[in-house]
Design a protein that fits this description.
Layout lengths: L1 H7 L6 H8 L3 H7 L4 H26 L3 H18 L7 H8 L5 H24 L4 H25 L3 H21 L7
Length: 187
């Protein structure tokens, strides 16, 4: 389901196609997801957010420098986008863009997913020395700019907007971290 959301969004894929992709009979969907396609999408959003967050956490734990971890995370996203021929973006953003105010369950799941990513990123930035009061808004900026750049790259069919955004954001992050670092004592 996550693959379908990345490529076509919730409303862009029919139930039959969705079940074909999952290689599941229709009865399985309604047995496990009595709320139908929307309930399945909410579960897929949760799974996608979990996978994105776990990848981000692993990189933040592996890399001492959060800018290096973010560069790797964003590079992964760019490679996935390019491999898909610019057809497969972030499943969260794809569904968010097509949701309406009536899609309360979807919007709630998306809001939770984006909040969890921001919180994970802010926690990693705080561990790296950025004051908590500064880490949260920087994390919000990073996620928002990344999603916007990914959308622009997908529409344009080339990655320059994503590369430029990544380079600029990471430059800002490096400056923020440098400014937050304690000054070494002078002798």
């Amino acid at each position: 389901m996550t693959h379908a959301l990345r490529r076509r969004g919730l409303h862009g894929i029919g139930l039959t196609e969705l079940l074909q992709e999952a290689q599941a009979p229709k009865g399985v969907l309604y047995h496990h997801f009595p709320g139908g396609k929307t309930e399945l999408a909410v579960a897929a959003i949760g799974a996608a957010a979990k996978a994105l967050g776990e990848r981000l956490d692993a990189l933040l734990q592996r890399e001492a420098d959060p800018a290096a971890a973010l560069r790797a995370w964003l590079a992964d996203a760019q490679r996935q986008l390019e491999r898909s021929g610019f057809a497969s973006g972030c499943p969260l953003a794809t569904v968010a863009l097509e949701s309406t105010p009536e899609d309360t369950a979807l919007r709630s799941a998306l809001a939770q997913a984006f909040a969890a990513l921001r919180e994970r990123l802010a926690a990693g930035l705080s561990r790296a020395g950025l004051p908590t009061a500064r880490a949260a808004p920087i994390a919000s900026l990073l996620i928002a700019a990344y999603e916007g750049a990914l959308m622009q790259a997908r529409v344009a069919g080339e990655a320059s907007a994503l590369r430029d955004t990544t380079d600029t954001l990471l430059g800002l992050l490096v400056r923020e971290l440098r400014e937050a670092a304690p000054n070494p004592p002078t002798s």
